[in-house]
Amino acid sequence: MTHMIRRRTCAGEDDLAAMQRLLHDAPDPFVSYPSVADLAVMLKDNPEQMAANTMLWEDDSRLVGYALVDRFHNLFYHFAPGVLNETIEREMITWAERRLRAMVDGAMAGLTLDAAARDDDTARVAFLARNGFIPTGDETWRMGRSLDTPLPEIDAPPGFVLRSLAGEAEVTAYVAAHRAAYGTEHMTGAHRLAMLRQPGYLPDLDLVAIAPDGTLAAFCICEYALHENRENDRNEGEIAIVGVRPEYRGRGLARALIALGLWRLREHGASGAWLGVSSANTAAIRVYQSLGFETRTVTRWYARAVEEA
């Protein structure tokens, strides 16, 4: 018997929990982002906006798939095995473009819907080609290293202090540092607070470098999801976000913070560590390679032009 699959927009916490269960119960071996924890941060950062930007597909009231468009115009989707077909694909693309038009409020010039696929993920690459996505030439490298081998020394520049973030009291300083490091205003206090308030957040892996004058000069957020590691028979940590204010670059702060993060991940029991980096960021790649990281997978980015309705 064939069951009808219906779609509807996300309605809140219960739907978030269902999305997390689906991702947990039927993980995609080719996709590491968004994870179960990432979904919570994304939807709780701006609940009303992200709910509107998330579409669900159900079979007899059981969630079988979802798609979301984030604030950077990226399309993410995840479906139970065997569910995704050409009809749902068309629904997803049509809906995603409609949401994107609403998000930009008429600023259509050069607008694209963006998506990514690992180069060995043949199904997702085929989906993107089938639906008019064109390679942009941008790549994200997934780099990893063992923590069972000797770890690098932690060499902080003289006068700088490496320590954990001082909780919610230091969120404002962190947001300012993040915006300066990345040259954008994408990081917000609400988003950073959502990260701190997630179950499983480990304060000792949320690292910052403080300059002699007290400025939060650099940061390195590491993650170790013990529950997910156990359930998926893994034992890995993540170097999730790294940044240095422009005026403090060239002093080895990023390297020192990552080295500290590796030591702390190993103290938590991790046997390996991962990170992602743009292939164009050659300076960062050199730092990561000096810390023992090697490229393990390559994810390529694609774009589909969005026309006016």
- β content, as a range? 25-35%
Shape: globular
- Looking at CATH, the homologous superfamily of the largest domain is Gcn5-related N-acetyltransferase (GNAT)
Distance between the termini: 37 Å
Sequence of strands across the biggest β-sheet: 5-12-6-11-10-9-8-7
What's the number of domains? 2
Structural class of the secondary elements? alpha+beta
Provide the gyration radius in Å: 20 Å
Describe the model.
Helices cover 35% and strands 29% of the residues. A hairpin with a 5-residue loop joins strand 8 and strand 9 (216-223). The chain has 2 domains: 5-107, Aminopeptidase (3-Layer(aba) Sandwich), CATH 3.40.630; 149-270, Aminopeptidase (3-Layer(aba) Sandwich), CATH 3.40.630. The protein is built from 10 helices and 12 strands. It has 309 residues and is α+β, with helices and mostly antiparallel strands.
Give a concise summary.
It is built from 10 helices and 12 strands. The protein is of the alpha+beta class.
Write the layout of secondary structure elements.
Blueprint: E1 5-9, H1 13-25, H2 36-45, H3 47-52, E2 54-59, E3 62-69, E4 75-79, H4 86-104, E5 112-118, H5 122-130, E6 134-146, E7 161-164, H6 171-182, H7 189-196, E8 206-210, E9 216-223, H8 226-231, E10 236-244, H9 253-267, E11 272-278, H10 282-290, E12 294-305
Parallel strand pairs: 10-11
Antiparallel strand pairs: 1-2, 2-3, 3-4, 5-12, 6-11, 6-12, 7-8, 8-9, 9-10
Helix pairs in contact: 1-2, 2-7
